[in-house]
Amino acid sequence: MSDFETDHDVTETLPPIHELTRAQRRVLGTLVEKAFTVPESYPMTLKGLTVGCNQKSNRDPVTSYTEDSVLDALDELRRMGLVAVVHTESGRTERYRHYTRKRFPFTEPQLAIVTELLLRGRQQLGELRARVSRMVPIESLEDLRKELESLCAQNYLHASGSLDRRGVEIDHAFYPSEEAAGRAALSPADDSPSAGRSREDEMFSRSPAVSAASRPETRDGLLEELRTRHQELETELQDLRQQLELVKDDLAQLRQSLGA
Q: In this structure, are residues 21 and 65 in contact, taking their beta carbons and an 8 Å threshold?
C-alpha cells in the first residue's frame, strides 16, 4: 500500500505566485533542496524539516525556527498549492512534500537555481553554480547563464547587470513588496573599468604586492573547486545530522507504540 496525500490537485485553479515570506521561502527551499540531495529522507517530517530550515550550512541568514512556526509556513504553502501533506502506511507521522514543479514552469536546473537563491539570497555566478551543482549538475557558466536568462525573462530573478559581466549578482524576485523596499536594490553595473569585478579581483587589485602578471591563471577554477568541495562537505555533515535526528524520532515513536 503506497503513501497517500491529503491535498487534492487543484494547482491549475490557483492564482500565480509572485511573493513568498521569509519563512515560506526557507521552508519551501529546504523541502526542494532535501528532495534533491537526501531523497531517502523525503517526504520530510516536521521535525526533520525544522532541522533543515535551521542548519548552519548553505543558509543565509541562519535561523532558529520552532516547529510551530514551520508548521504555520507549511499551512500557508499548502493553501498556495506549493506543499502537500503525506500520510505514510503506518500512519504514525505526517510528512510533507513540495509541488513546486506543478506551480512553476521550471526546468530541473532552474528549480535548483531558484531553490538556492531562496535559501541564501543574492550570489555571484561562480558561487551560485557551485552550490546549485549539489542538486543538479551545471556543466559550465555558459549553461548557468542560459538558465538564468530564461528565469530573468520570466521575472523570477533579478540581475545586477549583464550576465556576461564578471561580478554580476543574481537574486530571486519573490520578496514581498514591504521586504523588497527595505533591501538594497540590485543596481545595474556601470561601464567603469572596475565594474563587474569579482571580490577576488578587488582583493588582488588592492594589494600592491600582487601584479596582474603574478595572478595565478587558474585562480578562478581553483576557488570554485574549493568552494564546491567545502560546501559538499558541510552539506554531507548536516544531512548526516538530520538523518540521525530522524532515526531518533522514529525510535522514540516506536518505543511509544510498544509501550516501552
A: no
Rounded Cα distance between 74 and 50, Å, is 11
How many other C-beta atoms lie within 10 A of the C-beta of residue 63? 16
> What is the domain partition of the chain in residue ranges?
1-177+217-252
Backbone angles phi, psi at 97, to 5 degrees: -130, 160
Cα–Cα distance measured from residue 83 to residue 93, given in angstroms and rounded to the nearest whole number:
16
What strand order describes the sheet that includes 123-124? 123-124, 169-172, 157-159
Cα separation, 61 vs 4, whole angstroms: 34
Strand partners, 95: 45, 86
**Whole-model pTM over 0.85:** no
Query: Crossing angle, helix 46-53 and helix 219-257, to 10 degrees?
Result: 150
DSSP of 57-114: TT-SS-----HHHHHHHHHHHHHTTSEEEEE-TT-SSEEEEE-HHHHS---HHHHHHH
145 CB-contact burial (10 Å; exposed 0-12 / middle 13-18 / buried 19+): middle
Copy the grid coordinates of residue 91.
500512519
For domain 1-177+217-252, which CATH number applies: 1.25.40.10, 3.30.1700.10, 1.10.3720.10, 1.10.10.10? 1.10.10.10
Residue 87's φ and ψ, nearest 5 degrees, are: -100, 130
Contact at 8 Å (CB) between 171 and 128?
no
Residues 121-144 have pLDDT tens digits of 999 999 999 999 999 999 999 999
The answer to which of 71-80, 113-122, 215-224 has the lowest mean pLDDT is: 215-224
Q: Contact, 126 vs 198, CB < 8 A?
A: yes
